[in-house]
Structure formats: C-alpha cells, structure tokens
Amino acid sequence: METPAFVGLFTIEGTPHGPYPGAVPGDVGAYDTIAFHRDTADQLLRDLNHDDCIFTAFWEGASLRLCWTTSWNARATTLVAVDTHGRYLIGGLWPWADWDGWGGGLPDTDKQAFALGVVEFSSSHPTVLPGHLRSPYRRGRETAHRVTLNSYRGEGAETWSPSLPE
Asked: 91-103, pLDDT tens digit by residue?
C-alpha cells in the first residue's frame, strides 16, 4: 500500500472503539489491510488490552505484537512492523467497520471533533468549533495528513495547514 487514496474512520466491528483514522487505496472490505499512524496503532493497542477479548497487543520496539487465542485454544501471534513511511498495516485479524459515532449536527465530544478533523483534513475551510473542541479537531487533521504521507493532491491541498485560527 504505497499510495493510499482515501482516509477513513474505522472501528473493530461490534465494539464502541474508534475512530481509528486509516489510509486505504479505495473501498475497504471487513478484513482488508488499513494503514495507521503510530498514534492510532497505540490507541488500538490500548483498546484491545482494555477489553476482555481474544486479542492482546504490546510493543516490541517499533513493532506491534498482536496475540490471540485460536478456536482450538492455541496461542497465535503476528508482528506488525512499521513500514518505510512510519505506518502500521493491519488487517486480516478481525472485521473492520466504518466508525459511525457522529450523533447529529456539529461535534459535541472530543471523539467527534477528532473525527471531523480527520474528515476535513484537506479542507481549506475548516469548521469553526468551540474552544474546547479545537485541539481534538486539529489532532484529527494532523493524524489524517500524516497517514496519507502528505500525498493528498485534491482540492485545498495547497492551502492545508495544521495551524488553525484560535
């Protein structure tokens, strides 16, 4: 996955977790591979370890180790190494789903503001939010920009800046 075309908001199907902003080359199937930035991979690790599920995760240096119990009660593991662009390509382990924790209207939580920042990462006209939601909104824009490898070439790309009005 050298040049992702889209940034999406994902969750592990059936969980309240996310949004996990990830880069994908197009439409995503449930078990497809998604490219995540280190911050997002770290959040995924915390969420997996928080839940009582078959998966556990931990860092081995710069790599992410994922472990799980198989249907025959054996332990399985995989090591997700960081790619040459600083992303973690994760897929094939559980079903992904689109994150849909929007509520309605403008964001009123940090999580929703972060998600809006991801969606609007390339917009030259960012949504103006109340002061307490500006920081998560900026973080969302910055995370989406990093995971796309600064390769976004669409409308507004030349004016994108992580510095938003206060």
From this structure: 999 999 999 887 7
User: Token pair for residue 7?
Assistant: 């940034």
The DSSP secondary structure of 28-91, one letter per residue, reads --TT--EEEEHHHHHHHHHHHHHS-SSEEEEEETTEEEEEEE-TTS-EEEEEE-B-TTSEEEE-
- Residue where the block lists tokens 């240096």: 61
Q: What own/partner pairs with CB < 8 Å and gap ≥ 24 does 139-143 have?
A: 139/114, 140/21, 140/113, 140/114, 140/115, 140/116, 141/117, 142/117, 143/21, 143/37, 143/39, 143/40, 143/114, 143/117, 143/118
